[in-house]
Specification:
Its EC number is 2.7.7.12. About 30% of the residues lie in helices and about 20% in strands. With about 325 residues, it is of the alpha+beta class. The protein has one domain: 2-Layer Sandwich (HIT family, subunit A), CATH 3.30.428. The radius of gyration is 19 Å and the shape is globular. The structure holds zinc ion (ZN) (2 copies). One zinc ion binds next to helix 3. The site of one zinc ion has 5 residues, from helix 3.
Length: about 325
């Protein structure tokens, strides 16, 4: 069954989704004798092993390049929410850096399309989470490159806190807090990695992991909608994303990572207050006793040092 568990003593909230326990694991050798491929539900030719597509990006030959399907092992089912998977390639490629330019641009466009699709169907105060887990240490259970989208009728607590802060900043200063922060980062250059194609690549002021990096629109934008409507924009963002991931990959020796898109909540937030960003979080440090005890992260690299190293690789 699915359930929300709320702890009245700590304020902690936990989601139980028993269906997830049944999901296959391609990183488990016993289940993956052939190294993926033939038995992989995400490979082209095995479409009958997944639910029907809810969206597809088609190549010049009319075949799908990337497709979106409902998650067979969902963390959310209606009315609690919806959970989709974006299958990022026809072939059994594991890494984002293995996708070709056309595939990655198609993936990025599908991300933006599905975020907009769910936002339009979501009540005020709801939220869309888009994330990608690359490598088992980042939480991936299937090797075939994929990302996930969850739409919920209620925003997570962490998003609500950020949202309240953004709106109070807008009220106090009349401007977007992120635009101001980005301009200060650009001027100081201390945590600045690069600017390219209308995107800024910056290390955050308080990185949770070594080499954590954010990609933000250089000009104010609350979401990724532009990537759904312009082929040029999706190709440009895909190129910036690839260069960022490649720089992090080189600096971390191919560490697993998570990508998290931080877009404006569904209706109910002032879109002038919310500046979207895409976070890339390498998973070098595990969540250990300290992190679990305090809710804080313990990391080992200053963001200024990370930015200097990534800027050289970018
Ligand atoms: Zn596959
Ligand atoms: Zn802004």
């Amino acid at each position: 069954m699915d359930a929300w568990l709320d702890d009245p003593l700590t304020g902690r909230r936990v989601r139980i989704a028993e269906a997830r326990a049944k999901r296959p694991n391609q990183f488990d050798d016993a289940q993956n004798d052939d190294g993926g491929g033939s038995g992989c539900p995400f490979c082209a030719g095995n479409e009958s092993q997944t639910p029907a597509s809810t969206a597809e990006a088609l190549g010049a030959d009319g075949r799908w390049l990337a497709r979106v399907v409902p998650n067979r092992f969902p963390a959310y089912t209606p009315p609690d929410g919806d959970h989709e998977v974006v299958i990022e390639s026809r072939s059994h490629r594991a890494r984002l850096l293995d996708l070709d330019e056309t595939e990655l641009a198609a993936v990025v466009r599908l991300w933006a399309e599905r975020l907009a699709y769910w936002r339009e169907r979501c009540a005020a105060g709801g939220y869309q989470l888009l994330f990608k887990n690359e490598g088992p240490r980042a939480g991936a259970s299937l090797e075939h490159a994929h990302s996930q989208l969850i739409s919920r009728p209620e925003a997570p607590q962490a998003i609500r806190r950020e949202w309240d802060h953004a709106e109070s900043q807008l009220t106090a200063t009349g401007g977007c807090a992120w635009c101001g922060w980005l301009e200060r980062e650009r001027q100081s250059g201390e945590r600045w990695v690069a600017a390219a194609e209308g995107w800024a690549v910056v290390c955050p002021p308080a990185p949770r992991q070594p080499m954590e990096t954010w990609i933000l629109p250089s000009e104010h934008e609350p979401g990724l909608d532009r990537l759904a409507t312009s082929a040029r924009a999706s190709a440009a963002f895909a190129a910036v994303l690839r260069r960022t991931v490649a720089a992090i990959d080189a600096e971390t020796g191919g560490a697993a990572w998570n990508l998290i898109a931080h877009v404006a909540p569904a209706a109910g937030v002032d879109r002038a207050a919310w500046h979207c960003r895409v976070e890339i979080l390498p998973r070098l440090n595990t969540l250990a006793g300290y992190e679990l005890a305090t809710g804080e992260n313990l990391s080992t690299v200053m963001p200024e040092a990370a930015a200097a190293r990534l800027a050289e690789r970018f």
